[in-house]
Amino acid sequence: MGKRVAVLLAGCGVYDGSEIHESSAVLVHLSREGAQAEVYAPDVDQMHVVDHVKGQPTQEKRNVLVESARIARGNIKDLAKLDVKALDALIIPGGFGVAKNLSTWATQGKNCIVSKEVEDVMKAFHAAKKPIGLCCISPVLAAKIFPGCELTVGHDTECEKWPYAKTAETMKELGCKHVNKHVTEIHVDVKNKLVTTSAFMCNAPIHEIYDGIGKMVKEVVTLA
């Protein structure tokens, strides 16, 4: 029997939900590692809905669980029903939904609040010494919940290749150790069993992002 890994989604679409390529890469790599993915999302309203053609918010209202079900091909459960004892690890893909629907990072940065449901689940995996994999913007959740942890969101110096590098500085202000890594690399916080990779925090070819996520997933399954 393969490892059972919870994948926590935050909607469907980079600007208001989970990043679809990252989510898909996580599911593909879990399958390759012989692990069983169990997809979850909170049953809450999205912060807002973004028209991905115009890049502008609309007046629409959508539900995070309903939208995440698109990526999960309908095979999804309400986060409220997650049982940590029955699972071996947790992975949270990135996308602005992490900063908008799972937390208030998008509007409040380091002063954000992580959704209680999400925080409780992450703390439960951590307390059970079960690994947590995070990519793109999702390491900010760990930065907020586990002070002093080690993480990467790529590089801490902003440039064309690293347009979101200020995130690393904000994480340092929360008392975390940020480790600069290339998009195809991961960082492992051995003490906290956190595995992170930068994914779309880097302006890189999609296959490099895919490969970095693959290393993260492989390490999470190994640690589980």
Describe the structure.
By secondary structure, the chain is α/β, with parallel strands linked by helices. It has one domain (4-223): Class I glutamine amidotransferase (GATase) domain (Rossmann fold). Helices cover 33% and strands 17% of the residues. It has helices at residues 20-32, 64-71, 96-100, 105-108, 116-127, 139-145, 166-173, 206-223, and strands spanning 4-8, 36-41, 50-51, 56-57, 76-78, 89-92, 132-135, 150-151, 177-178, 187-189, 194-197. The strands form 3 sheets. Strands 5-2-1-6-7-11-10 form a 7-stranded mixed beta sheet. Helix 7 links the parallel strand 8 and strand 9 (177-178). The longest helix has 18 residues, at 206-223. The model has no long low-confidence stretch (mean pLDDT 97). This is GAL3A protein.
Outline the fold blueprint.
Layout: E1 4-8, H1 20-32, E2 36-41, E3 50-51, E4 56-57, H2 64-71, E5 76-78, E6 89-92, H3 96-100, H4 105-108, H5 116-127, E7 132-135, H6 139-145, E8 150-151, H7 166-173, E9 177-178, E10 187-189, E11 194-197, H8 206-223
Parallel strand pairs: 1-2, 1-6, 2-5, 6-7, 7-11, 8-9
Antiparallel strand pairs: 3-4, 10-11
Helix pairs in contact: 1-8
InterPro entries: Class_I_gatase-like, ElbB
Organism: Atlantisia rogersi
Protein name: GAL3A protein
